[in-house]
Design goal:
The protein has 456 residues and is an all-alpha fold. It has a domain of 180 residues. Helices cover 67% and strands 2% of the residues. A 3-stranded antiparallel sheet has the order 1-3-2. A hairpin with a 2-residue loop joins strand 2 and strand 3. It starts with 17 loop residues before the first helix and ends with a helix.
């Protein structure tokens, strides 16, 4: 895969032992839990408190010309990815497609969504093409064209679960998942499926419920204080967008895939996995699979196992919360608190892919000038280099720990606020969160352990 995709190497000895970071992080969560119980007696995040940007700025930013321009940029980038993947050099480091997809798109849009709101919705090429086709079709029909089918509620976010899992499998399981041609073909296949779904259920409905990347980035965007409503950009309280997440079918599995895939990516570097993976692969070889097929099946099972562990751990916390009383079912509580997993997913992404975005993200400057890898220099930046001295190894570790702790404190805050909103008794709400505190401490410890293992 792409170099530097999995943290840093060669870190100097830390002035504080790594195990002490784990204990300190757990203590921060415990102290935060106590502070919330004492100082946060009423729910404060259940209403967003949205207000538009002043002086018409919000309406200008969300205006039709801006929307069309952003959509056109998205379509152009989609075309460049496909063309460079099919026609360019098949080197994953010299071709524009792999770095753009796995670094700029997959990783870079996460912090952009948290800071700026749902930016992917504006640049989404599939949405832009679907809306353009719909506009032409409506003009030809001289009227509104309703979607042929109503979106089944039971589908919920399950299509997004399948899409994100497939993307993670291509990145982490497929041995040739970073080959530019394969990425281009996968992009074309995904585009075709998306357009068919849009034709059946409507563009906006599919973008909101089924289009994997729209759903994925929208969840992170709900952490942002910036939100667009009714064609106007405005501000809301940070974190306040998450309590409004509708717990549709598939939402909990989607968050499990989001967290579990990053967990497996980190665990794949740990001695616990590198020690047993070859033995498992040899077992599949003995059953008749090729060495490549055996290794891919091994990694696929590892990915599935990581996702199931995350899902089971969350369900365990929910079952524990139910045991304190309140009369709620497990499914009701699982849906009520699922939004608290989003900051944890962010913490895992930020900590694990921090160096990837910081270092490998710089490569887009020279890859944009030479997207096919054939020696072109379209923008005069083809000779630029990656600066690996932007941040030291120890400083990176501190940032990673900060990401993990901050994300889990945010999750704890959201869980406490939701508990106050759904339980009639404040004391019962606090007791229900003992189990969620255990979940948060567990996820924090796992994240720090994975980071430490990646640097062994």
């Amino acid at each position: 895969m792409i170099p530097l995709a999995h943290g840093l190497v060669g870190r100097a000895d830390l002035p504080i032992p790594e195990w002490l970071f784990g204990w300190a992080a757990a203590m921060v969560l415990v102290v935060s839990f106590v502070a919330l119980a004492v100082l946060w007696p009423d729910p404060r995040l259940q209403r967003e408190g949205w207000r538009p940007l002043p002086r018409g700025i919000g309406r200008l930013l969300a205006s039709r010309p801006v929307e069309v321009a952003c959509g056109a940029i998205g379509v152009l980038l989609l075309a460049v990815v496909v063309y460079s993947g099919l026609r360019g050099t098949q080197s994953s480091t010299a071709n524009f497609a792999p770095t753009f997809i796995y670094v700029i798109f997959w990783v870079g849009l996460v912090p952009a969504s948290v800071l700026l709101g749902d930016v992917f919705k504006a640049f989404n090429p599939w949405r832009a093409i679907g809306r353009a086709v719909g506009w032409v079709a409506r003009g030809a029909a001289r009227g509104e064209l309703p979607a042929p089918l109503a979106y089944p509620r039971r589908l919920g976010r399950w299509p997004a679960v399948a899409g994100i899992f497939a993307f993670a499998a291509m990145e982490l399981v497929a041995s040739n998942g970073d080959r530019p041609e394969n990425l281009a073909i996968a992009t074309l296949v995904y585009s075709a499926l998306t357009f068919v779904a849009m034709a059946l259920y409507g563009v906006e409905t599919w973008v909101e419920r089924g289009e994997a990347f729209s759903v994925y980035f929208n969840l992170f965007a709900r952490l942002s204080p910036i939100e667009t409503r009714d064609g106007v950009v405005g501000l809301r309280k940070p974190l306040a967008g998450l309590p409004t997440v509708e717990p549709l079918p598939g939402t909990v599995p989607l968050l499990a895939v989001m967290i579990g895939s990053v967990t497996f990516d980190g665990a794949a570097e740990a001695p616990i996995w590198t020690g047993i993976a070859p033995d498992i692969a040899r077992l599949f070889e003995d059953l008749g699979l090729s060495p490549q097929g055996a290794l891919e099946l091994t990694f696929l099972l590892g990915l599935i196992a990581a996702i199931l562990i995350v899902y089971a751990f969350y369900r365990l916390g929910v079952v524990g919360a139910r045991s304190v009383g309140g009369g709620f079912s497990v499914d009701r509580l699982a849906g009520a608190f699922v939004h608290t997993l989003v900051p944890i997913a962010l913490a895992y992404v930020a900590a694990h892919y921090f160096t990837l975005l910081l270092f490998q993200g710089q490569a887009i400057s020279f890859l944009a000038s030479d997207p096919l890898g054939d020696g072109a220099d379209l923008f005069g930046t083809a000779d630029s280099q990656i600066d690996y001295g932007l941040i030291g190894a120890n400083a990176t570790w501190y940032w990673q720990v900060g990401f993990v702790v901050t994300g889990h404190v945010a999750a704890l805050t959201l869980a406490h606020d939701r508990a106050l909103a759904i339980y009639d008794d404040a004391g019962l709400a606090v007791r229900s969160q003992y189990w969620m505190l255990a979940v948060m401490v567990g996820f924090t410890s796992l994240a720090l352990w994975l980071l430490s293992q990646a640097n062994v």
